[in-house]
Amino acid sequence: MNRIDRASRTIAAAPAAIYDALLDREALEAWLPPDGMRGRIERWDPRPGGGFRMVLTYLDPSGSPGKTSDATDVVDVGFADLVRPARVVQTAVFRADDPAYAGTMTMTWHLAAAGDGTEVTVTATGVPSGIDQADHEAGIASSLANLASYVEPGD
Length: 155
Description:
Distance between the termini: 44 Å
Strand content: 35-45%
Largest sheet: 7 strands, antiparallel
Low-confidence stretches: none
Helix content: 10-25%
Number of helices: 3
Radius of gyration: 15 Å
């Protein structure tokens, strides 16, 4: 269980703007779901020890059956550590009957100033064995691309 899934991206926005997008309910619903999914937050408590429940729905579940149901992944996310504007540490537990998706995954979002932008690095540990590493890293990269589109100034 020493697996570490990771993705990073330089985003043309200040660390504080990205931090805010990590702790805003509407923002997370807009950018966190990777391509092929949409998300809805059911409960929200943005403080250390708080968290949220997100229901992720596959737009086409035929190729990627969900962990909770055929078309959904439900994940309970806790805020383990919040350090403005440098780091957000989340714990994630999937609602699934399959033991391959059991356990608590830790997602650490590191935000480091990089020139006129921010280097955002996401590191996942404790990833359930049922989640393919390449698919997970592609999903994180997709979320980072969505985040960039959400926070970067338009032309």
